[in-house]
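Worked Example 4.2. Read the sequence first, then its structure tokens.
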Amino acid sequence: EEPLLLAELKPGRPQQFDWKSSCETWSVAFSPDGSWFAWSQGHCIVKLIPWPLEEQFIPKGFEAKSRSSKNDTKGRGSPKEKTLDCGQIVWALAFSQWSSPPGRKLWARHHPQVPDISCLILATGLNDGQIKIWEVQTGLLLLNLSGHQDVVRDLSFTPSGSLILVSASRDKTLRIWDLNKHGKQIQVLSGHLQWVYCCSISPDCSMLCSAAGEKSVFLWSMRSYTLIRKLEGHQSSVVSCDFSPDSALLVTASYDTNVIMWDPYTGERLRLLHHTQLEPPVEDSDVHISSLRSVCFSPEGLYLATVADDRLLRIWALELKTPIAFAPMTNGLCCTFFPHGGVIATGTRDGHVQFWTAPRVLSSLKHLCRKALRSFLTTYQVLA
């Protein structure tokens, strides 16, 4: 089925600023439990929107509610939309998992007025190299992390809920922060020669992938913070990367119009997905209009979504070398799946967010067994 446009959010009013590159939506994110959506709508503003969207946005007959969002709001009053003014252009967003008990003590110590409940947080990466940490339920600013010398381009929390945050920056470094220790910087990873565009932590928390404006991708150990290997295969800058939910696969997207699927344990190249142009290219144009911007895995791990400069959102099944569906979208910059499936959110250069239907699938028993095994066994162990 072709993706259908479910809803579109646009910035409420035109901004008074006339800055270059200040209205883009560089990042969109769903909280891991699916109860919040964060949108960097440009001009320094992040909107925190309770999910599911209010009914005026959603066509009749489409049910996007997650069970958890109903349960979480019971007895506490429905959560309200929040506006976070970050004071700088926002490039990156990441939600934590629900924090562990030590994390709860930390926030309570900083803000005695914050009730002692598990605290969901949002990290925002800014134009001046700062990272601001917000409490989602209240919209309070909890921490300000300083260290990067240039734009913070991407952020990633460890999926284990340990409140370790990785940041990627145009200063060519990645930095590791421990929010349980007042946001202490515990490591700087250097080695990239270009701006770092993207960082992704494997769901088993063993590896970190980083993509810079280079043809190779770096894989780091999340235990020792050392470089494991470089993955070589792209012909131009790699700009986006994502691990499959079982950590067994890694996808990387590049300006060379290709997505490569890798085995991160062996470094083997498993598949190449080429973005062919559907329309004839513009005359006298040297620009790759199929240059990729973003790639992400679906939550069950059977599909990929990609956003490219040729004004298309594509959906791919892992077994096939051509997309199974297309949707027209102009100026796309980023994409992410709703954690319970069925919806893809995309952000655009005009500061808009669009929500699309995504394939709903019942995973086969074979896929579920493989996912269960691969979530704790490496390729080498499986082969042995």
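Now turn to a second chain, presented in exactly the same format:
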Amino acid sequence: MMHGVRKAMSEGVQIEEVIISVGRFTKSMRAFGYCQSNSDHTLFLKKQHGKIIALIVYVDDMVVIGNDPEERKALQNYLFREFEMKDLGHLKYFLGIEVSRSSEGIFLSQRKYVLDLLQETGMSGCQPVNTPIEEGLKLCVEPNQVSTDKGRYQRLVGRLMYLAHTRPDLTYALSVVSQYMHNPGEQHMNAVMRILRYLKNAPGKGILFAKNVNHQSIEVYTDADWAGAVDDRRSTSGYFTFVGGNLVTWKSKKQNVVARSSAEVEFRGMALGLCEALWLKLLLQDLGYLSRQPIRLFCDNKAACDIAHNLVQHDRTKHVEVDKFFIKEKLDDKIVELPKIQSEDQLADIDYYSKSAI
């Protein structure tokens, strides 16, 4: 892990300097034989003689990994010559994320971040709960709601959203409370406080990337509710994606249109998850893994799956034309397949997060 040191400067100069530095850094990496990934522009790769070195950068912090020690050392020496750098040694802590290794794999958590947050909010001694959101809770903006500190609410939700990098169990609850950033009431603040109480229950929970030889397989689980939002009757979609059996990305997001059927809702959710899986496939190709295995897309809505295979026009699909043909095209090209899955096995089930913890 390496860190670039920047001089203190005014905000205006700093923005200009950062833009120049980014261009200079990219040019320097290319001059040293590295290619910039098309899937993620912060990722630089060099593949030679069956070996690979990868560098990923965030502002002025970067991580270098690979299976070519000589090339890795050469890259570090080159960067030291080109930029003012510090070598922080083996990756243990990056952008607030703690990294630990064992015989089982690599574990990511934000335990210190959680404990600091509980301390700062005065919740260190709170009574813990087992779920991040109350079962069946439906938040809305009430006409005569009791107001709360808007600035504090926004700061808390912002701090909590950063935890979603290693805590997929918070995703749905955070997607709910973040919808009321501009007009929070007492019931919304209570929902945020519950998330903090849930964190007290297991502050060190995180993500384990287990060793797996089948690291080219991609699976995506998608689900959605129907008209679940009380304020505007829009639906919420969610997905989990796995590479080699390891959870790598997740999302919960309210849809931007009102759906007229559950099939339409599920279709939009399937399209959202499939786009993410296709991006992961391209990223794996950049890393040198040209997998021919089809993406396994799991959806427990039979009507949506049937429509994906058969583009017969009817009322339930007239509003999802683009998504419908997008999914069917990938099915025809054998890029994706739709295995059957029971609702109780649906990992992206939205209701799951208000009933039990991961």
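Notes for the reader: Residues 5-20 have pLDDT under 50 and may be disordered. The first strand starts at residue 2 and ends at 4.
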